[in-house]
Amino acid sequence: MHARDLVSGFPTVTADTPAVEAARLLAERDLPGLIVLDGDGLPLCVLPGTQVLRLAVPRYCQDDPALARVIDEDQADAFVRGLGARTVGECLPEQPRELPITDPDATLLEVAALMARTKSPLVAVVDGDRLLGAITLKALLNRALPA
């Protein structure tokens, strides 16, 4: 089994996409993350959904989770409004990491190793200068686990 056998079309965004739109896309399509494309249409990075949440959750609640408990329920339920006019570009990690990108000939084990190493729930599959789609953790495990 190779990456080409598991790859499927996958929605993409750019660094200029509003973060709230990215969050909506994650929720509506039940996605583990998003592929962020550069100006040439190639993956700039894979953005796990948790990175989008980092912009919405107030920093003081991330630094001290006990503070999140003192926020009243109505305010706590509206935390996503904290995304405001921010963009996907603002969600990107400050330090570039290894990109979870592979070619169509990668084996299932190579894809799994890449996911594990990069801590990414999805891997972009690129053939030369063209994005073919992605392989999600769910798709990989569904194929790898015995029935």
TrEMBL record:
Signal peptide bounds: none
InterPro entries assigned: CBS_dom (IPR000644), CBS_dom_sf (IPR046342)
SUPFAM superfamilies from the UniProt entry: CBS-domain pair
Domain CBS: 95-147
Keywords: CBS domain
UniProt-listed CDD domains: CBS_pair_bac (cd17788)
Protein name per its UniProtKB record: CBS domain-containing protein
Organism: Sphaerisporangium melleum
Taxonomic classification: Bacteria, Bacillati, Actinomycetota, Actinomycetes, Streptosporangiales
